[in-house]
């Protein structure tokens, strides 16, 4: 029960921190705290002495302070609305020109969330300072330092908006998006290569027992720490049936175990299996390769007709193939004594190639630039790894040439 609650909290935490609203809300509360601190400073003895010593820091009329803060709040609200509109336009353009799958990559971008958060924080700050202004004959009772700080924030927001215009126009470029997906996928492969184990063989007993999925979802592996402990406590070995990134239906076999398990053990084991609604490149590098494939296919569609973007995607995919072959992942999880206890189904390079490159070939086989690019990249890959033979692709090429 506790493991199920922990998994739910972990999933909820991931959903919250990856939400587009997380950092803007967090920054908004930060600015609220800053406004409280500034008002306290304004009404403190130090603040009053500062305003009396330097008259230019003191605003004589409360109405003037209200007018300044009202103008700031209204202006930044307009700036925020315009910025959000630009983000929506960029997302729509990316979805129509590239692929819907790249939207998560753009929405989850931290830079634009920080900028929008600062805008919202400035609005919160201005409104909170407005509530602290009272009509008074003594100018020292007006939060003028806080008002001047709001003016500085506004100037900073204007320069930030200029940067935002540059950033948002750059982030939607095809080569930038392809490069970002490539880098995330590369990091995922490197991260998983840490689990590489030398001179370790995994041998399941001849008699294996199927465990069926209790819910539907995309299989993304196991909670390594928990699964190690579970296998040690129950003297168990586990082998996955599906590849990472495969969708599993409720009631279909998902793993093999070395011995039968009770219903309570099966339920506990499922708490350590990742069945998610949405895939992530971090946990499954093949998802990144598929994103690059979809970008290439969309670019080759008659409506887009952009073989240059398709070629950039092909270069990124073959670099990832090369990195994957160099990594030689074993897809094993071992215990403290280096004995293998869990085996993930290995992903063959031929399968990766056929699923992604053949799909691109089906759309771009009549384009000479795609033919040339594929011929160059495949030739280089086969020279580096002579044992590779992409039979299905060679057959497809012969059909086109004939």
UniProtKB/TrEMBL annotation:
Pfam families for the chain: DUF2254
Alphabetic keyword roster: Membrane, Transmembrane, Transmembrane helix
Transmembrane segment boundaries: 20-46, 67-94, 114-133, 145-165
Top-level division of the source organism's lineage: Bacteria
InterPro entries: DUF2254_membrane
Protein name, as recorded: DUF2254 domain-containing protein
